Known about the structure:
About 40% of the residues lie in helices and about 15% in strands. The protein has about 260 residues and is an alpha/beta fold. α2 (about 45-50) links the parallel β2 (about 35-40) and β3.
Amino acid sequence: MSGILEGRRILVTGVTMDSSIAFAAAKFAQEQGATVLISNFGRALGITRRIAKRLPSEPPVLELDVTDDDHLAGLADAVREHVDGLDGVVHSIAYGNPETLLGGKFMGGPWPDVAQALQVSAYSMMSLTQACRPLMSSGSSVVGLTFDASVAWPAYDWMGVAKAGLESCARYLARDLGPEGIRVNLVSAGPLRSLAAKAIPGFSDLEDMWGTRAPLGWDNTDLEPTAKAICALLSDLFPATTGEIVHVDGGFHAMGA
Length: 257
């Protein structure tokens, strides 16, 4: 029986450790029949190359810094060295300086650090999608990762602002790319003990909330439900869905108290 991504070519960005959502998405995508490429940059690139060997099939690893114009300009050619196009892109990229922007440091967050967080975490969804656009055609799908930006959370501070920007960016991308048949959606996961979460001071406060309020319960170590949602959106099972935020949070977002 073929998988839901059989024959599809997928670029998954931000794969660092095997505890990352991006790794789980790449793994499930391969299990569902996709040809996967992964990316990272800088000091993390060597780690990604080692981690790639833990996937069911070792994928090509591309060097991609989404804040580097040269990397973005060369991305299409780098991808074409391995596949002749892309049917899906996973944006799993975010950064906010934990020393200045997170853990109760909202007031007084310095603009240079805020600007970096907005560029890496929100603007990069547009710049990555634009770099991949020559490789995509009607039926392609872009999926990003958010953490519900409709409310203010303990500890999340400027990263919450950046995620609000990401959510708005996804809607405008959906508007502009819809005529080309390219879908753009986000998955809003509950708190998961990923590499990104470990960098947030006070993240345990968020985890505690989910333990008591998510009607389906919540396992903060289980990345598979989020990976499955990402891959469903990458597939052709949602052909008329774009500009959407799919919550994978045990139902927490729908509860008032």
